[in-house]
Specification:
The chain is α/β, with parallel strands linked by helices. The protein has a single domain, classed as 3-Layer(aba) Sandwich (Rossmann fold). The strands form two sheets. A six-stranded mixed β-sheet has the order 6-7-8-3-9-10, with helices on both faces. A four-stranded antiparallel β-sheet has the order 2-1-4-5. It contains nine helices and ten strands. Bound molecules: adenosine-5'-triphosphate and magnesium ion.
Length: about 240
């Protein structure tokens, strides 16, 4: 489904992403783990085409795609680290706006918006303004927004950060539902137990480089659990940053 080859991005003299390569098969759920500043958000920005790589390539279904190519927009759904929503508008109006950006026709958009809201458990709150939503509800609406054009590949940047356990669980169930529908998911998280439960495979990234690319089962066998793999490979405790 996705092939990333030697992708690099530099900000000034800092190499945020350093020649990373990996592939993700259709239907696979892959976790992108790494300390603060490791390069996770940058990698996702490069793959989704919202940032331009200095070098390297991204391919979808075996075909190389350029930054901003329509093929990329059509097939990839991005859930950014910071929810991008209009606070004054209702949940429904936000989805209509996003769907319009994807160029969906009104009737198709209505059906997709219904479906996406049901999936994230917000169907009953559709007419309420986003500013009245909790943090977790905003995150779930953000996921719905990325689903409107029915992408094959979803890129989710810390979809469960900063929300209470109950909302986290609801978001988690949304991700499991997407997985059951056969979507390919690449998502970043700092919650190891979450990655252990949801992911088929994880990539551990630090200082822009991939330190591990293995199945959860293999990493757990080798390091006892994902937290152990993370700490041994990065040499950091879970809450440490990489801002060096
Ligand atoms: N627009 C930018 N301009 C300059 N430097 C940037 C920019 N975006 C990211 N960086 C730098 O690139 C590195 C990687 O940042 P990135 O946001 O990709 O990390 P991350 O793994 O997503 O971290 P976090 O877990 O905190 O979200 C950091 O050193 C960061 O300071
Ligand atoms: Mg980030």
């Amino acid at each position: 489904m996705l092939e990333v080859e030697q992708l690099s991005k530099r900000y000034g003299d800092r190499l945020a992403v350093n020649a990373i390569s990996f592939t993700i098969a259709a239907g696979e759920t892959v976790g992108l783990l790494g300390p603060n500043g490791a390069g996770k958000t940058t990698a996702i920005a490069l793959i989704s085409g919202i940032a331009r790589a200095d070098s390297g390539h991204v391919s979808l279904g075996g075909v190389r795609v350029r930054q901003g190519a329509n093929e990329l927009k059509r097939r990839v759904g991005l859930v950014p680290q910071d929810p991008a929503l209009y606070d004054e508008l209702s949940a429904w109006a936000n989805l209509q706006l996003f769907g319009g950006l994807y160029g969906l026709r009104a009737d198709a958009l209505r059906a997709r918006a219904e479906d996406a809201l049901a999936l994230v458990g917000l169907a009953g709150r559709r007419h309420e303004r986003v500013k009245t939503f909790s943090g977790g509800m905003k995150r779930r609406l953000n996921i719905a927004g990325a689903l409107l054009h029915d992408p094959d590949l979803m890129l989710l940047d810390e979809p469960t950060v900063g929300v209470d356990p109950q909302s986290r669980n609801a978001i988690f169930e949304n991700l499991e539902a997407l997985k059951r529908r056969g979507k390919t998911l690449l998502y970043t998280t700092h919650y190891m137990e979450e990655a252990e439960r949801l992911c088929d495979r994880v990539l551990i990234l630090d200082r822009g480089q991939i330190l591990a690319n293995d199945s959860v089962a293999n990493l757990v066998r080798q390091y006892r659990n994902l937290e152990g793999a993370f700490m041994q490979l990065t040499g950091r405790a879970l809450r440490d940053g990489a801002d060096t």
